[in-house]
Design a protein that fits this description.
Layout lengths: L3 E6 L4 H12 L4 E7 L7 E4 L2 E6 L11 E4 L3 H13 L3 E4 L28 E3 L3 H17 L1 E10 L6 H15 L32 H14 L5 E8 L6 E9 L5 H9 L4 E3 L11 H4 L5 E8 L6 E8 L3 H17 L5
Parallel strand pairs: 1-2, 1-5, 2-4, 5-6, 6-7, 8-9, 11-12
Antiparallel strand pairs: 3-4, 8-10, 10-13, 12-13
Amino acid sequence: MKKYNVVILGATGAVGIEFRKILLQRQFPIDRIKFLGLTTVGKEYDFGGRRVMSEAVEDGCFKGYDIGLFSAGGEISRKVAKRAAEEGCVVVDNSSAWRMDKDVPLVVPEVNPDDVDWHKGIIANPNCSTIQMVVPLKPIHDAAGIRRIVVSTYQAVSGTGLKAIDECMIQTRDIVEGKPISQRKVYPHQIAFNALPHIDVFLENGYTKEEMKMVNETKKIMGDDSIRVTATTVRVPVFFGHSESVNIETEKKISAADVRELLSKAPGVTVVDNPSKNEYPLAIDAAGKDDVYVGRIREDESVPNGINMWIVSDNIRKGAALNAIQIAELLIKKGMLK
């Protein structure tokens, strides 16, 4: 089996740690591996028995590497992604920097795998909440045509990063121990035992940047600008796993039973839908898993062609690291890496 040289930018962040874990779990065919960091340069890390030192980003650091997995934020990606591509390294970028660039494919392998065919050295990994929504919606769109999507998300603190996980833990401990909140740096309000209808910055239209990501990215990934999308995104005190309440209106009538049948055969989807036995997707069950879980599938009785569903997935795995690595595997399958 041919092996490839892989570089991870942001290897010690929440997504970077997951990159490392999943590459080993999936036995990705690696020859050489390089970690690039900003504040961790010179530190050594274990990678499947190898000792890998974190190096600085500098000219020539991507030469000789086939695939770059980036998760170091948009500012860094904008500075170095094109340089990496020029040095022959295909970049799969997890930030929002390139997602809506017309020359950069935005890919979820279960939904639009052939979009990688027109990449020019950079492929964008979509927003976590968008990824888990479009995986089950694509087969429904193919079967009945989706006209409109109304989505409300309940997103884990890990989506903000390691510091947010720590803040939620500290606040929870303080409250349980009857102490005043000792830390509130990451979010504008207490996150423990709370729900914040505020993810990313507010825009002039009243939506947040996170909400508009879901609107715009969904259309690009699905390849259909006619789909109308509206979103409300909420941060909740869950460590791993985003949950979404999704309502769709379709062009053609499709029953809840038909949707269950479609999704039971859809790649990357697990249907958990037996409310009579209290069986439906839960964030705690999706954490650490690869699939997108769907349940509470039912017809919307307020419109002629409507379906409601509850979608849950691990935001760090399928919502970020796993999807990026699946893109890299897709490039190998298509023979697009030298």
